[in-house]
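Continuing the batch. This is chain 6 of the set; chains 1 through 5 are on the previous pages. Same settings as before, nothing changed between runs. Recording input and output for traceability.
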Amino acid sequence: MTSAAVQLDIDFARSHFPALSGEWALFENAGGTLAANSVLARTQAYMAENFVQPAAAYDASAEGARQIEESQRLMAEMIGAAPDEVMVGPSTSMNVFMLSEAIRRWFAPGDEIICTNLDHEANNGGWRRLEEFGLVIREWRFNPETAELELAELDKLLNAKTQLVCFSHLSNIAGGINDVAEVTRRVHAAGAMVCADGVAYAPHRALDVKAWDVDFYLCSLYKLYGPHLSLLYGKREHLARAHNNNHY
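Output for chain 6:
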């Protein structure tokens, strides 16, 4: 079967989204997707029946824990990771902020973090604030003629002080797709880590964090027909030594 032979059943697709039954034409898909009926049903069922402290001995609590574990397993499967390498937070901006707080103790004053001038604030602000702790922020600037991040410019920035490179998988401004695997290879060769923002990429392509060998990767579930939550992936060895931002 060729792609030309595939026909989208518009009525069938629209039937999964109750928000489309109204009079408004919604053009907000760049900022977030509508939640599908299946998502609404699962969320309502959990909130109505199992929204209790999970993993206790009684049935509702045990079932709630099972559903949480299942969702974590499925999200990990979606991006090619292990369940203990993914976590969920309220937004990608907040996940980056929490991640930056969890790993900033790994760095010393004078160490360098590379950010781009093409990224969304989500993968910028949390890292740039680490200047308060003596880190140096260097900027991987896009080519104004092509609106692309060029690997040759990254190579000029990488040095012995580089600890982390933060960049987008796909620019939500210019639409260019960056070669995550190649960027990661070059950064690792320089002895540093990468944090890739996949928010704009995830709705359009399959994800495989292990194949790309990224250290950290993020995407927004509310751009994937889900609730307003964000997924953060981190390599197991990184998460194991990160500072705990929770109760204990």
